Amino acid sequence: MNDANSNNLAARWRLILGRYSDRALDQVQLDAEQLRLERTLDYLYNREYEQRGHVAGGSRHGSLDDSQLTAINWLNQARKLFPQSTFERIQTQAVERYQLDALLKDPQSLKSLEPTPQLAKALLTMRGRMNAQTRDAVREIIQTVVEQIVARLKPNFINAIHGRRNRFRRSLIANSQNFDWRRTIRENLKHYNADLNKLIIQQPFFNARVQRHLPWTVVLCVDQSGSMMNSVMYSAICASILASLPAVKVHLVLFDTNIVDLSHMAHDPVEVLLTVQLGGGTDIAKAVNYCERFITQPNRTIFTLISDFEEGGSVAHLLNAISRLQSQHVKLLGLAALDEQANPVYDIQMAQKLNERGMSVAALTPEHFAEWMAEVMQ
């Protein structure tokens, strides 16, 4: 390996390890751009080493205290230096892992953050530490993130739930989920181009959708114990989308060992998220029993339990409650908790017991949840 490549590799390790590598990599020469990267990374990750009691090596660029690099300047610099995905991860760790006080107490700093679901969840978990001005800035971030997710998910729910495809009636709405590929191929076969060996589509066809007018009651029973923020956020958003659909009545109940009925604000996911208090134990049976009061037309009711299924209360009471609902022909769905990488995190044995009592259990993203609910409504 030549000297240039060797120094470049050493420089990358220097950026990864930070100033604490000075003793081992004190001969590494960083250029101006690399020094800016190191300065920006060190402003945040130096907190990790200080918490562990490490002593830094000599700094190449002097002190990095707040008088030289403020939170707002650090954010602006990090946004310019790193790719978008890397910047979003850094800013989320600043709030979630290192609880950077300068960001949490300064509304202007908060307004400079890039609104992402990860940042929104981090801010929600520590909103109790914020003053009134900061809470307003947090609300704006949550609102922006919610609007972005609603814009992405709502078409899925409308297309999946509002009506099933009607293959006998043509639609003028060009929507990929309504695309009638069979008829499109059949009607355009006359346009086959032998020279190009391609079928030329001059007229695509789309199926209309049948409107459903019979009402449905959807009960969302959502676990708000400490590990459920990811599921709570999407549950609140899904509830608001369902509440906006005609002929769907939504009840939204959050629980740990206590029960919070937020049905009256199901249409407002931002307010729901600002109301959530994560933590505590889990009493699923108590929550299911509470939700039974909403079931007046069992065969037109979908009860969805969104949880990691780790029952802290009576397992027997929970299973009996699910059996009662099943005997009334309530449609029972169990949506397992997902982690940050959309991997299922739940008690498999309990899920199996619920399934044996008539509850369909799955670990699905919100997009697929819409399709699942539509299948149940058929």
Report on this structure.
This protein is an alpha/beta fold. Helices cover 48% and strands 14% of the residues. It contains 15 helices and ten strands. It has helices spanning 3-17, 32-51, 71-81, 84-96, 101-105, 107-111, 117-125, 132-161, 181-188, 229-243, 269-275, 284-291, 315-327, 348-356, 366-377, and strands at 163-171, 192-193, 198-199, 206-211, 216-223, 248-255, 259-261, 301-307, 331-336, 360-362. The strands form three sheets. A six-stranded mixed β-sheet has the order 7-6-5-8-9-10, with helices on both faces. The protein has a two-stranded antiparallel sheet with strand order 1-4.
Short description:
With 378 residues, the chain is of the alpha/beta class. It folds into 3 domains: 3-109, no CATH class; 167-211, no CATH class; 216-377, 3-Layer(aba) Sandwich (Rossmann fold).
Beta-strand share of residues:
5-15%
What is the helix fraction of residues, given as a range?
40-55%
CATH fold descriptor of the largest domain: Rossmann fold
Which spans have pLDDT < 50 for at least 5 consecutive residues?
Answer: 56-69, 165-173
Strand order of the largest sheet: 7-6-5-8-9-10
Q: How many E strands?
A: 10
Helix and strand string, N-terminal first? HHHHHHHHEHEEEEHEEHHEHEHEH
- What is the top-level CATH class of the largest domain? Alpha Beta
Tally the helices. 15
Summarize the main sheet: 6 strands, mixed
CATH architecture of the largest domain: 3-Layer(aba) Sandwich
Tell me the structural class: alpha/beta
Mean pLDDT: 77
Rg to the nearest angstrom?
27 Å
Intertermini distance: 65 Å
The CATH superfamily of the largest domain bears the name: von Willebrand factor, type A domain
Q: How many independent structural domains? A: 3
